[in-house]
User: Fold these one by one.
Assistant:
Number 1:
Amino acid sequence: MAKLKILALDTSTEACSVAIWVDSAIIERFKFERHSEHILPMVQEVLAEAGLSLTQLDAIAFGRGPGSFTGLRIAAGVVQGLAFGANLPVVPVSSLAVLAQGVGVPRVLAATDARMQQVYWGAYVRNAESLMELVGEEIVIAPQAVPLAGGEGWVGAGSGWDQYSAMLLARLGSRVKEWRKQCYPHAGDVA
């Protein structure tokens, strides 16, 4: 049986991430650098380390946002160009779901800083296949108005928590057992 091979990337936040997923094994690069300068060299690095060319891949996946307008344009443009040139399908994945997937807990309140005193927000619960599923909808909203999550034991993650933790904790109270600093989407979780 042939191994599934996916190139994945995420540039939806200040972090830049590229990964190759080959039958559950992941090779990843992650930087806080200028996306436009580093994304293609990172793609070349992971392909070389995996011993693959673009035409040997099965698909390209990317963090579709929500997130930084410029970062999302870079990801979409790079993915479109690579996929078109290699005749590969493209799979867009929510960057909030990717963020939640990487936290490694059952219930995540993902929030990234949307600027202008708002956050991109989504509540995620891990399913039987260990993938994060959205509860409700992804929204952009003021931190003090986020929807109240049902139950307790939620973990907060993302730059929205780094920026607005006091407001989010005041709104959510005991529903949140902890929040994790400096969490960003990783391409390995996109894959």
Number 2:
Amino acid sequence: ATLKSAKVLAEDLSWAGGKTHLVIVGDILDRGPKSRAVMDLLMRLEGEAVAAGGLVHVLIGNHESMILIGDMRYTSEDEYAAFASEEDPDERNRGLRLFVERQGGDPRELRAKFNEQFPPGYFAMRRAFRPDGHYGEWLLKKNIIDVINGTAFVHGGLSPEIAHLGLAGVNEKLQKELVDYVKVLATLMDAEILLPTDSHYDISTIL
């Protein structure tokens, strides 16, 4: 509704902004039940805007980083549900088995805990945000800061580090650190050293 009122979107949700630059300063995740639909819209608009001479800038906020590294504290059941149709039952059953083995204890109690903590769609969502996943690959290419017409756009404010690293340095350094970390997590999960059900905050203890 906001983008329509700003004449950036047409009624059919196609790009109507011409040469406009649309800037999204992060936190498109963990903010409501339709975060996947928001990402799909922005991914489509990126191409449509370029074709019209405009540009869509999607920047990384802390909640994008959190999902990429497996910190799912604020993710809602509705957000998981958007991925439920793509979750293989075998994938979910394997996740349950490994979770029970990792936790130890009464399997019936652990099954109830598993279903509460990891709603339908959880595993498919985690897979989609891997470095080779549909949304993970897209987000890991995004900048931390963009400067447009002399105005800096960033999520949460400017760090003093920018004085030392410069704009390109901040984007390259922080983006590389995030990419490297997410790739290491994926490698450890493929080897089942880490599990998708492991809390981000328990990783150092597990390793």
